[in-house]
Amino acid sequence: MDTPAPPPPYDLLGVGIGPFNLSLAALAEPVPGLRTLFCDQRPEFRWHHGMLVDGARMQVPFLADLVSLVDPTNRWSFLNYLREQDRLFPFYFAERFQLPRREYDHYCRWAAERLANCRFGTEVTALHWDAAPGEEPCYRVELTDTATGRRSSVRARNLALGVGTRPVLPEAFAGLAGHPRSFHSADYLDRRAGLADARDITVVGSGQSGAEVFLDLLRRHEGDGVRLRWLTRTRALAPMEYSKLGLEHFTPDYTRYFHGLPGPVRDALVAAQWQLHKAASAETLAEIHDHLYERTIGRPIDTAPVEITPGTAVTGTRPGPCGGLELHCRHTDSGAEHVLRTDAVVLATGYRAARPAALEPLADLIDWDEAGRYRVDLHHRVATRPGLTGGLYVQNAELHTHGVGTPDLGLGAHRAAVILNAVTGRTVHRLPERTAWTGFAPPAPAPFDRTPVLPRPQELTRAATVGR
Predict the structure, then answer these.
(1) Whole-angstrom distance between the N-terminal and C-terminal Cα of the chain?
(2) Does residue 318 register a pLDDT over 90?
(3) Where are the alpha helices (DSSP H) in 37-176?
(4) CA atoms of 208 and 98, how far apart (whole Å)
(5) Which of 1, 42, 117, 445 is the 20 to 30 Å CA partner of 424?
(6) Residue 400 and residue 398: Cα distance in Å, rounded?
(7) How far out from the chain centre does Cα 412 lie?
(8) Measured between alpha carbons, how far is 279 from 467 in angstroms, rounded to an integer?
(9) What is the tens place of the pLDDT at every residue in 292-307?
(10) Global pTM value
């Protein structure tokens, strides 16, 4: 009996299904003849589920959906989602440019459940490069069904890593690792009930997550005497840069400019541009102020059990000798040190890209930079050794090469289209050449010309007249 031929390789296989790889899946689905598969070990799509607090809104307009800024006619657009949910008229009358976080999550789940090229409950356990003589060089992708444990493998010509970022737990909080009353904001909704009997709660971190957690706690502990504290290392609770020209840092134009800068300059810029991608929104800060204003009507400000302390770094932590937690702090400007005692800590300390374990078999074939990070070209393709010829693309792991727009949902569809055009070797999606009014780079120097510039006859006449 003849052995059936193995299925052809996938043209593109995505590892992880967050918003960015989901965007790639949505834009790739209608492309004729393109075989794609996207895998995620989770049983279903989930997006920042620990931070879907009531009232929390997106920081980007609804057009920053999976497809609209590249192809607004695509069936996976947010407006088509509203149409299928019979919510177009309610959305129209709501006049909302920024969506509730819960609605964005529901929209993504709507798309993920219907895209035929998305497979959940499927863990990518290892990635290999097979280049046996006589066979087409391809990635061999080992898969495990998380429900049954069944293992299988498929082949792919290109990979797109979209495994997302992981919560950052600062070294200063190592002394509280595993403590039930110290956890990252990524788990806030799952762990919030465990704070019910805490009488003193501290939130650490000045970004949007920190602001949203602090505001939620303010609303939940109105008048019950619980002391709430917001501690930040930054010197001021400055709002996110949201001016129209400032937002042009989140355009492909700025990405191209940033990519062309020397590595040390790029690293310094990312750190200096924290207000573009790490600060809280002005609206959330205003809500916090409004809430505090109203709860102190008729009584002095200092009677409210609330502390907001910027410019204070936590240098060390440990469980308190009589219960609770101890935070050793240093005031940035004065250098004064003190010990803060609290019952619970919520760490809104951000996220960082991490190398997936499945990539380890390919580690020696990747051309890492001096800091052990990916070298990524403008098409979001990772530099590899000569022996690896398949495309390896990354999404949201190239902050150091592509700048502050890397984690921004507004550039997600554009990046996915760039990757798709590179994978297919043709223009599947036409992309604009100019997207910003701002010119970020200095003007190109004029070519040097040795030809003397002679005055025209009328200029000679005028010069002679003026001379007289």
Answers:
(1) 108
(2) yes
(3) 78-84, 88-94, 101-114
(4) 15
(5) 42
(6) 5
(7) 9
(8) 63
(9) 999 889 888 888 899 9
(10) 0.91
